[in-house]
């Protein structure tokens, strides 16, 4: 899950960074305000993308999503982009959790098979030997 979230944050860095010149040139926002607000958020997204292995960074990134959503009201069109990235973040969390669950299930299954000494097929036989023993197909 953390990898997917980190990827979303990296893409978000670019988009938030591009909001700065749009806010300055199209909306007439003070450059210091635009650079401070969206530059700070872009920097925070970049740092948080690298720290997603920590639980606190994951929750801080949720806060960043909320800040991006609320600050997007200052720039025309940014609300749509913010909604898209919040949706990507939520999707990344949901799909990432599913992937983590499947990985955990496979790891526990592999540990159980290793502990019992069974590996699903005949022990010591490779895939071709197992297929040959099962049906004898393809041998002359």
Overview in brief:
Keywords: Membrane, Transmembrane, Transmembrane helix. This is DUF4233 domain-containing protein. With 140 residues, this protein is mostly helical.
Key attributes of the depicted protein:
140 residues, mainly alpha, 78% helix, elongated, disordered C terminus
Report on the structure:
The protein is mainly α and 140 residues long. The protein has one domain (2-116). It is 78% helix and 0% strand. It has five helices and no strands. Helix 2 packs antiparallel against helix 3 and helix 3 runs antiparallel to helix 4. The protein is elongated, with a radius of gyration of 24 Å.
Regions with pLDDT < 50 over 5+ consecutive residues? 132-140
Number of discrete domains = 1
The assigned structural class equals: mainly alpha
The description of the largest β-sheet is: none
End-to-end separation in angstroms reads 50 Å
Number of helices: 5
Assembly level: single chain
Strand content: under 5%
Fraction of residues in helices? over 70%
Q: Please tell me how large the radius of gyration is.
A: 24 Å
Number of strands: 0
N to C succession of SSEs = HHHHH
What do the pLDDT scores average to?
83
Shape: elongated
Q: Could you give the topology of this structure?
A:
Blueprint: H1 2-25, H2 31-50, H3 55-71, H4 78-116, H5 127-135
């Amino acid at each position: 899950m953390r990898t997917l979230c980190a990827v979303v944050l990296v893409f978000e860095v670019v988009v938030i960074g591009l909001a700065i010149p749009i806010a300055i040139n199209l909306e007439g926002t003070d450059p210091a305000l635009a650079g401070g607000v969206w530059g700070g958020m872009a920097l925070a997204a970049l740092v948080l993308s690298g720290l997603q292995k920590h639980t606190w960074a994951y929750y801080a990134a949720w806060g960043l999503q909320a800040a991006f959503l609320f600050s997007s009201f200052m720039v025309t069109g940014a609300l749509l982009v913010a909604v898209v990235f919040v949706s990507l973040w939520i999707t990344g969390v949901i799909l990432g959790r599913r992937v983590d669950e499947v990985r955990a299930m496979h790891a526990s299954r592999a540990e159980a098979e290793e502990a019992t000494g069974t590996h699903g097929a005949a022990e010591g036989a490779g895939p071709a030997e197992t297929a040959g023993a099962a049906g004898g197909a393809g041998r002359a």
